[in-house]
Write a structure and sequence with these properties.
The protein is of the alpha/beta class and about 675 residues long. A hairpin with a 4-residue loop joins β1 and β2. About 35% of the residues are buried. The chain contains 24 helices and 23 strands. Helix content is about 45%, strand content about 20%. The radius of gyration is 41 Å and the shape is elongated.
Length: about 675
């Protein structure tokens, strides 16, 4: 560097201050010399000699040595830059500089080694590492992004940072950046292959807690002679122990019909893949027992603690039992998964549970001032009859109850008007959601009938305003059930909510008196949900019907009240005529642009009638109503339509279920239904 060039170089910052400090010191010494001279001339003259020498030396160093100092500084900076570039080039961490379009302009040796050599020509980095493309690049200065990438069978954690081009020298050898570019992307890779491998291995070693219950232990034991009971249970124990032993698990029998199991997560995936074949293996145990044994399996997996995994397993087994048993339920941090559940739960003839629930319900009613009863949206006869049964139970305990109902369907209107016209019933027996919310307070109680899903109730907001919630339902539970209910009475084997309420009424008070109209309403709910006592009827169904007949239920009145008008009958015939047979066993029909008042009711009736066709195992009727498409699904015994509807966001019973689409595109809804059927047939779920 020439002297002329050195003169153009200007110092700045702390170094410039250090160079100027001797000149400032010289000025201060001169001022001090003047002050001393005023006090003592001889001392002042003597000091003047020394100050003059000091100023001469400072001036010499500043003016004559400046170029030498600057030259040394420049040489040091150049050597420092070379060392810095060399260190960066030989850094053990892969590091590269990319343009904003993904083109690499520089990379160190380690980055080249990762890619297997230098990039050819103007190749883009995404050609070698597809994950590193411009869509993931940070766009603003100081912004950074982190993601996992893969290259040459290795896993890397990539850190990308946006760096502004401003401030970089045009002569910088490290970066040759185009002038039009505003920023570049600095990226470095951290090899996490081994770390991820150990993380995965550790995750696979985590323990999964599980519970296995024999659903129908008492019924199975009683169905075989006493000398064979021990052999039967030994065979069931053997099936369970062999199945868990195959996956290196532990089984501990807690009670005659309850088992605790522990397996590793890596084998847990194997159980999922074979869809818990233990459920079917146990049913094959037969030594003369008239009823096959069925199991419920609940598995819990938590990433936090083993105790939490056990709690998840308890929630899962409770859900499996509430859904009817004969299935496996898996609960983990991401949600709940169901397997099995293809068999209808055996109805229990004992009514002990009904009596216990009735006593608990009586305790709640007697301590509350306001009682609200509600069913599901688009209230049907079953929900309406069950709500009236709870109203009667409250009246028998000298408490006032209100039924929350917003919309009266055409099929329900004849029965509803009977109560509206009867002066025996108060004017505020039926309330809208807004009226109920205005009346509700902390001392209120809400009884939900014929549904256990909060979003399906007439007024979900009412559940948030009250702390005392009771649920009575005959539908199998799903993962989004009402989880804060103080009393939950859910019996999937019951034919209807009216059947359950009829049993509860017999234990609320002794010799309860049920008016003829209310008894007829409860009877109608059972009759409609069982399709005139054809579907899902058990011994207790007929016992409940007999109790209601003794209370004065009028069968003739019920039949007259629920006859179809001519328009509805024609609409039903039109739906049935549009049916297509899918996979030679599913009937799919649609109802478009129907002018009747309650197309969903007609759709359900049409679905029932389609089952009378030979070789049809399940029927699906789609109807449009109020900006939505409703599906009514029905089957007899070979197909579980509930698990089909759950895939579409719905639910219900094994033989009667439904779902909704939040649109009116009928073709798209039919395609979605067919896709679910195809997937479940391929997966062996149907």
């Amino acid at each position: 560097m020439s002297d002329k060039q050195n003169e153009k170089v200007q110092l700045k910052g702390q170094l410039r201050l250090y160079m100027q400090l001797p000149a400032v010191m010289a000025v201060l010494l001169a001022a001090l010399n003047v002050w001393i001279y005023c006090m003592d001339r001889r001392a002042g003259l003597l000091m003047l000699v020394f100050v003059t020498i000091y100023i001469f030396m400072v001036g010499y160093l500043y003016f004559y040595s400046n170029s030498i100092i600057m030259k040394d500084l420049v040489e040091f900076a150049a050597q420092y830059g070379i060392v810095q570039n060399t260190l960066l080039k030989e850094l053990s961490i892969p590091y590269a500089i990319l343009l904003d379009d993904g083109k690499a302009v520089w990379m160190n040796d380690q980055f080249e080694a990762v890619l297997g050599g230098r990039l050819k020509g103007d190749a883009y980095i995404s050609k070698y590492i597809p994950e590193l493309n411009r869509s993931v690049f940070p766009k603003h200065e100081g912004e950074s992004t982190s993601l996992e990438v893969y290259c040459s069978d290795r896993e890397y954690q990539a850190e990308l940072r946006c760096v502004s081009v401003h401030g970089f020298s045009e002569t910088e050898k490290l970066l040759q950046l185009p002038e039009e570019k505003e920023y570049f992307v600095a990226v470095y890779l951290r090899d996490v292959t081994e770390l991820n491998k150990y993380i995965r291995e550790n995750e696979q070693q985590r323990l999964v807690a599980g519970l296995i219950y024999i659903d129908n232990y008492d019924e199975v034991i009683n169905s075989v002679e006493e000398v064979r009971q021990s052999l039967l249970m030994a065979l069931v124990d053997r099936k369970i122990n062999q199945y868990i032993a195959k996956v290196d698990g532990i089984v501990k029998k807690m009670e005659n019909d309850k088992y605790f199991i522990v397996i590793k997560k890596q084998y847990f995936k194997q159980l999922e893949e074979d869809k818990f074949s233990l459920l079917e293996d146990v049913k094959s145990v037969n030594i003369g027992n008239g009823i096959p044994a069925t199991l419920s399996i609940g598995l819990g997996l938590s990433s936090e603690a083993y105790a939490q995994s056990y709690n998840y397993a308890r929630v899962a087994i409770d859900l499996a039992l509430a859904r009817g048993g004969d299935q496996a339920v898996i609960k983990d941090c991401s949600g709940i998964t169901y397997y099995g559940g293809k068999r209808e739960q055996t109805s229990k003839n004992t009514r002990v549970k009904a009596r216990v629930k009735a006593e608990a319900l009586r305790e709640f009613i007697t301590v509350k001032d306001k009682i609200f009863v509600m069913g599901h949206r688009l209230t049907d006869v079953d929900a309406f009859g069950a709500a009236l049964g709870i109203y009667r139970a409250s009246a028998a305990l000298e408490k006032k109850a209100h039924i929350v109902i917003n919309e009266i369907s055409a099929s329900l209107r004849p029965l509803y008007e009977c109560y509206e016209k009867d002066p025996f019933y108060p004017d505020d027996l039926f309330l809208t959601s807004a009226e109920a919310i205005a009346m509700a307070d902390e001392n209120s109680m809400v009884v939900v009938v014929d549904t256990n899903r909060p979003q399906m109730t007439e007024c979900e907001e009412l559940l948030k305003k009250t702390k005392t919630i009771v649920v009575l339902d005959h539908h199998r539970q799903s993962s989004d059930n009402i989880d804060n209910a103080l009393l939950s009475y859910i019996e999937p084997y019951a034919s209807s909510a009216c059947e359950m309420v009829s049993e509860v009424l017999q234990y609320i008070v002794d010799d309860i008196k049920i008016p003829k109209l209310e008894a007829s309403s409860l009877y109608a709910g059972i009759m409609i949900d069982t399709n005139n006592f054809v579907n899902r009827t058990g011994v207790r169904t007929f016992e409940a019907a007999a109790f209601l007949r003794r209370c004065g239920a009028d069968i003739t009145l019920v039949r007259k009240m629920f006859r179809d008008d001519m328009e509805s009958y024609r609409a039903k015939a039109e739906i049935i005529s549009s049916a297509e047979v899918y996979h030679e066993k599913f009937a799919i029909a649609v109802g478009r642009h129907m002018t009747i008042e309650s197309p969903t009711i007609i759709g359900a009736q049409a679905a029932n009638e389609l089952l009378d066709i030979n070789a049809i195992k399940a029927s699906f009727v789609l109807t449009e109503y109020n900006g939505r498409i409703y599906i009514s699904a029905r089957s007899i015994d070979e197909v579980n339509v509930q698990i089909i509807m759950e895939r579409l966001g719905g639910g219900g019973h094994m033989n009667a279920s439904g779902a909704q689409f939040d649109h009116t595109d009928m073709e798209a809804a039919v395609v979605s239904l067919k896709q679910v059927l195809d997937e479940m047939i391929e997966g062996g779920d149907i």
